[in-house]
Amino acid sequence: SLIALALAGCDRAAAPDPAADPVETAPPSNAAAGEPAANEAAGPGAAPAALVLSPAGYDTIRIGASPTEAEGYALTDDGSYEESCRIYSSDRLANVYAIVEDGRVMRLSAFHRPDADAASLRTDRGIGVGSTEAEVRAAYSPLREQPHHYVGPPAKDLYFGGSEQEPGLRFEIGEDGKVSALHAGLMPVLGYVEGCS
User: Fold this and answer.
1) 172 bridge partner residues
2) Against a cut of 0.85, is the pTM above it?
3) CA pair distance 144, 102, nearest whole angstrom
4) Would you state the pLDDT for residue 159?
């Protein structure tokens, strides 16, 4: 069913405006499994042995750069989307994928699947999949709140920054009050609902 949901995103819809429309993301069909690289974290509260996800990207996977510049990750295109927008993943990063538009990484997403361990990427303020909404709000301000696209309250999306020029973060809060997915990137891709749309 995840594959069908992801492929439904192939029909590109108008990109949502985080100030007006609710947005949410379902994991696309090529979510990869594997172990993330370890390195020094930056910022208070961050996990000490993990690379950190920032609005600008993760390690050598940089927002706005070509996926070929992601040295050490061998990002692979799953080939299931339209020509101008593709989904890439790396077997070094569990439950993480990149959205590439016109040859540039525009968003990096970490999510949790019931059949797999939660993604281990965390922000420089220690927030990752499984963090509580209260932890997100304590770490980031101001936040823009939008209703969750598929799930009713208390589920929601929280945006920290993010425009067409400056990358930001998006935290998907589930019904349990915890982060179910974490995204970094540029608008409008930061707000895409399903894969490339």
Assistant:
1) 157, 181
2) no
3) 28
4) 97
3 state SS for the chain? CHHHHHHHCCCCCCCCCCCCCCCCCECCCCCCCCCCCCCCCCCCCCCCCCCEEECCEECCEECCCCHHHCCCCCCEECCCCCCCEEEEECCCCCCEEEEEECCEEEEEEEECCCCCCCCCCEECCCCECCCEHHHHHHHCCCCEEEECCCCCCCCEEEEECCCCCCCEEEEEECCCCEEEEEEEECCCHHHCCECCC
Quick count: other Cβ atoms within 10 Å of Cβ 130? 17
Tens of pLDDT along 133-181? Answer: 999 999 999 999 999 888 888 999 999 999 999 999 999 999 999 999 9
Residue 132 has φ and ψ, to the nearest 5°, of -85, 160
Inter-CA distances, 127 with 35, 121, 122, 150, Å: 19, 9, 5, 23
